[in-house]
């Protein structure tokens, strides 16, 4: 079980429910639309994207089949974007100071005016969360939609990251993980939210809620009985270690 944050410093982030995500990619498209889409224009019928199409996605969803030895296989849809780490290696390696973590709310950002497009931060990030914008020549990443969440010109319900606003399954939650009383902190405690690859020492702010044990995970005939309260989480943690080590 994840422990309470040690401070009450405002620390904005996402809590992503891997039990609920259905892998529809709506969050990917809404992120792309809000953050890295160009002005809309009719596409040509012939070769609409030109000879060398490029694109920048700040949020991706990978889908995996998990095959436990003693239970039925199941699918996990795994959304991944910047985790706004407390000890962010992408910030410490940046030679120009373009990458930084905001003191006021913990969001990790890139100052595109100072970015020289060297790509060092992308090499340093253990989660593969940064994307070079080949057209702009600068590094891009999830900003937690910083231009939405404080935007008083938007209706209040839209002042959340685009992915959270769009997710039809309610699998994405946004809030202050530095506040032990916030809804997201409650969720993390109740559901045993986990850090991705904690051995990297990055202390990611974003948390993942593991899949709940379910009927489909019942032991195969003849398999030893196991504790349903821990089986799903233990199996999942093993899977996540194996999967992320491939990135
Ligand atoms: Fe930096 Fe990667 Fe952590 Fe985001 S997930 S703060 S890009 S190290
Ligand atoms: Fe999963 Fe929600 Fe993204 Fe769909 S929109 S892929 S349900 S997180």
Describe this structure in words.
- By secondary structure, the chain is an alpha+beta fold.
- The chain has a domain at 12-41 and 59-87 and 145-244: Alpha-Beta Plaits (2-Layer Sandwich), CATH 3.30.70.20.
- Helix content is 23%, strand content 16%.
- The protein contains seven helices and nine strands.
- It has helices at residues 26-36, 89-93, 120-124, 146-149, 162-166, 183-191, 228-244, and strands spanning 12-17, 60-66, 74-80, 99-101, 108-110, 131-133, 138-140, 172-176, 207-209.
- Strands 8-1-9 form a three-stranded mixed beta sheet, covered by helices on one side.
- Strand 4 and strand 5 (108-110) form a beta hairpin.
- The longest helix is centred in the C-terminal third of the chain and has 17 residues, at 228-244.
- The radius of gyration is 19 Å and the shape is globular.
- The two termini are 26 Å apart.
- The structure holds iron/sulfur cluster (2 copies).
- One iron/sulfur cluster is lined by residues 21-27, 61, 77, 79, 166-167, 169, 171-172.
């Amino acid at each position: 079980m994840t422990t309470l944050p040690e401070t009450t410093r405002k620390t904005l982030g996402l809590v992503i429910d891997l039990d609920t995500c259905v892998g529809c990619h709506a969050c990917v498209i809404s992120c792309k639309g809000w953050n890295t889409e160009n002005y809309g224009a009719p596409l040509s019928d012939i070769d609409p994207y030109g000879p060398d199409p490029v694109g920048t996605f700040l949020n991706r969803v990978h889908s995996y089949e998990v095959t436990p030895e003693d239970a039925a296989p199941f699918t996990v849809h795994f959304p991944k974007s910047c985790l706004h780490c407390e000890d962010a290696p992408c910030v410490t390696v940046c030679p120009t100071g373009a990458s930084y973590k905001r003191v006021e709310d913990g969001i990790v950002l890139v100052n595109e005016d100072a970015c020289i497009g060297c790509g060092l931060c992308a090499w340093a990030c253990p989660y593969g969360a940064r994307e070079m914008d080949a057209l702009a020549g600068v590094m891009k990443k999830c900003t937690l939609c910083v231009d939405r969440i404080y935007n008083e010109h938007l209706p209040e319900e839209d002042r959340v990251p685009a992915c959270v606003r769009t997710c039809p399954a309610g699998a994405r939650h946004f809030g202050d993980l530095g506040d032990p009383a916030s809804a997201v902190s409650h969720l993390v405690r109740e559901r045993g939210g986990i850090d991705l690859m904690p051995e990297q020492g990055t202390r990611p702010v974003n948390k993942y809620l593991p899949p709940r044990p379910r009927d489909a995970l019942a032991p195969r005939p003849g398999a030893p009985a196991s504790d349903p309260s821990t089986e799903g989480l233990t199996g999942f943690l093993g899977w996540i270690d194996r999967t992320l080590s491939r990135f």
